[in-house]
Specification:
The chain has about 650 residues and is of the alpha+beta class. It folds into four domains: about 30 residues; about 170 residues, Penicillin-binding protein 2a (Domain 2), CATH 3.90.1310.10; about 325 residues, Beta-lactamase (3-Layer(aba) Sandwich); about 80 residues, Trypsin Inhibitor V, Chain A. About 35% of the residues lie in helices and about 25% in strands. The chain contains 21 helices and 26 strands. Strand 22 and strand 23 form a beta hairpin. The N and C termini lie far apart (about 140 Å). About 5% of the residues have low confidence.
């Protein structure tokens, strides 16, 4: 074979071998390892991101939305696709997406992806899209600015109960409150969106496909009453401003089940009711007196000699009364808030028993409301007490409480002796309104006997009628309440001029439907006593509750003239008394088949007329009857209440 032919053969053989290697390699890549390399290619060319799920709504007890998610979009741009960056920057600036200079820098950046807005509302997004097309920044052939569905968390009632609700960050992270506590229910399940990567591995903002669609979160129903919450916040803010205070709170409870109806806080973004610990002062005497009554250590008529309102303590210290009245019984001691008597009563109870009882009332323990940062307060064991601890605790010193603890303790007395765990979340519902989870009221323990509660309510009623709490009085309504003015300690020493003003109460006094505790921290102007600072807040909030809903009070609890304790209550037929199984006098036989006229009569006279016809009634206001519904001579329906509106006669 000639040399030239040999070269040709060698080249040909080499070519055949190389071709065989290429074919073998192609077979290996495309056939044998196809799945492997396909996955590698997909990983290099595609990227996946989450599509946010719509977050569930947080409702109040009447299904009014407190926090909800509105449609919004995340807006981003691909600078390489923008032809005229200056024109685009002007348009985006007009829509409030930033200042002109910053936007121009973004749109001329050497990047394929820049954020423009993380939460642009639905209406603004639609208008911006239209303008982008009109000005040919976005066209059918290319997009420069992109929109991804997202959501904007908003509070439609302008921040009402924001301390309870918490927040959601720009990255949909739950921060505090119910948003955090119920996040697993609210957040839903995000979907998956697939993106395309170019040859350089840069993520392109064009959407290729939606892999899975998002699933909306469930909604949460709270026990909060949005109206009461709003009024409580407003009245609290006014009091804090008027008295130049550091802050405060208002807690409203339904004592029958422990539902939290309002949890107002100042500052608004704090959770003062569950995190702030303070000495309650005389408002704590409720627990001292109730314990002594329940144990039979005292009775309402027990006489105490206060020695001129001065009680010496070990170590040379002295407990004194602001209202020095000498000899008094227990009712007067509560009415005029005697520190001396409270100390004497505590010493009759004894250290170990006193500690156990206060523990039973919930002090020194978290209430279990479930909000972050809740404090258990301060209740030391007796082994850590000094000789003066027991008498001073009896009057509300040397003990630290939260407003929530105080509210639940008062609720226990108001409902007949049962301590409840406060309930803030009622239920979880899905998009169709179907309940998926629910929480029933939870009774923790029985603290005191029902008879003791009745005695305490009657004594606390005197506080409001003619004692230290008269500024909480509402005409025609029997209110049980107690004032408190706690001193504030700094480094173990009571600081001069620093106090906590407290008022705690419930209504109606002996058949309570509402419990309200008002705390104002460090009032520095226009008084500092609980009866001056906090009692008016209680009055204003409760007056609103009564005006809004006449069913708050049983009819017989309206009485414009305070009655003596020894006089029996008027025997009027009312649903609330039947429900409680109390004995009633048999009413007279009905007179006629139409509603009688009671216009112009006093409430006492009107009640007698209506009782003769077995008509249940409810009244609001004081004075004489100006209006009745149903009206006089209307067909009689004893299943309905006759509502009476009272006022001053013209």
């Amino acid at each position: 074979m000639k040399p030239s032919q040999r070269k040709i053969v060698i080249i040909f053989v080499g070519f055949v071998v190389l071709l065989a290697i290429i074919i073998a390699r192609l077979f290996d890549v495309q056939i044998l390892d196809h799945d492997k390399y396909a996955a590698m290619a997909a990983d290099q060319q595609n990227s996946e991101s989450k599509i946010p799920a719509k977050r569930g709504t947080i409702y109040d007890r009447s299904l009014r939305p407190l926090a909800m998610t509105l449609p919004a979009y995340q807006v981003f741009a691909d600078p390489e696709m923008i032809g005229d960056a200056r024109k685009a920057a002007v348009l985006l600036a007009d829509f409030g997406l930033g200042d002109l200079k910053t936007l121009y820098v973004k749109l001329t950046k050497d990047s394929r992806f820049v954020w423009l807005d993380r939460r642009l509302g639905l209406e603004a997004s639609i208008r911006l899209r239209e303008e982008l097309e009109v000005r040919e920044i976005n066209t059918k052939k290319k997009n420069a600015v992109y929109f991804e569905p997202s959501g904007e968390r908003t509070c439609p009632l302008e921040g009402v109960a924001i301390n309870v609700l918490g927040h959601v960050s720009i990255d949909d992270e739950a921060l505090g409150g119910i948003e955090q506590k119920m996040d697993s229910e609210l957040r839903g399940k995000p979907g998956i969106r697939r993106f395309f990567r170019d040859a350089l591995g840069t993520k392109r903002p064009c959407v290729e496909a939606i892999v899975t669609t998002p699933v909306s979160g469930n909604s949460v129903v709270l026990t909060i009453d949005a109206d009461l919450q709003e009024v409580a916040e407003r009245e609290l803010d006014l009091a804090v401003e008027e008295h130049k205070a550091k802050g405060g709170c208002v807690v409203i409870i339904d004592p029958a089940c422990g539902d939290v109806l309002a949890l107002a806080s100042n500052p608004r973004n704090a959770n003062f009711p569950v995190t702030h610990v303070f000495e309650p002062g005389s408002a704590f005497k409720l627990c001292t007196m109730a314990t002594a009554l329940d144990l039979g250590k005292v009775d309402t008529t027990t006489i105490f000699d206060t020695h001129g309102g001065c009680l010496p303590l070990p170590g040379g210290q002295t407990i004194t009364d602001d209202h020095r009245r000498g000899v008094m019984d227990l009712r007067e001691a509560v009415q005029y808030s005697s520190n001396v008597v409270a100390a004497m009563v505590a010493m009759r109870i004894g250290e170990r028993t006193f500690y156990k009882s206060m523990h039973a009332f919930g002090f020194g323990l978290k209430t279990g409301i479930g909000l972050e940062g809740e404090s258990k307060g301060l209740l030391e064991e007796p082994k850590h007490w000094s000789p003066r601890s027991l008498p001073t605790m009896g009057m509300g010193q040397e003990i630290g409480v939260t407003a929530m603890q105080m509210a639940m303790a008062y609720a226990a007395v108001a409902n007949g002796g049962t301590l409840y765990q406060p309930r803030l979340v009622k239920a979880v519902i899905d998009d169709d309104g179907k309940v998926t989870r629910a929480w029933a009221p939870r009774a923790v323990r029985t603290v005191i006997k029902k008879d003791t509660c009745v005695k305490m309510a009657r004594m606390l009623r005197r506080v409001v009628e003619s004692g230290t709490g008269t500024q909480a009085k509402i005409n025609g309504v029997e209110i049980a309440g107690k004032t408190g003015t706690g001193q504030k300690a700094m480094n173990g020493i009571y600081a001069s001029g620093k106090f906590t003003a407290v008022f705690a109460g419930f209504l109606p006094a002996e058949r309570a439907n509402l419990v309200c505790v008002v705390v104002v921290d460090e009032p520095m102007a226009n008084g500092y006593y609980g009866g001056v600072v906090s009692a008016p807040v209680f009055k204003n909030v409760m007056e609103y509750a009564l005006k809004r809903d006449l069913t708050v009070l049983p009819a017989q609890c309206y009485n414009p003239k305070p009655r003596e304790e020894k006089q029996p209550a008027a025997k009027v037929v009312a649903d609330s008394r039947h429900k409680r199984g109390e004995d009633l006098e048999e009413p007279a036989q009905p007179e006629g088949s139409a509603y009688p006229s009671v216009i112009g009569l006093t409430l006492r006279d009107a009640s007698e007329v209506l009782a003769k016809s077995q008509i249940r009634w409810r009244a609001f206001g004081s004075g004489v009857v100006l209006e009745q519904r149903p009206g006089a001579l209307s067909p009689l329906d004893r299943a309905k209440l006759c509502n009476l509106v009272l006022g001053e006669a013209e």
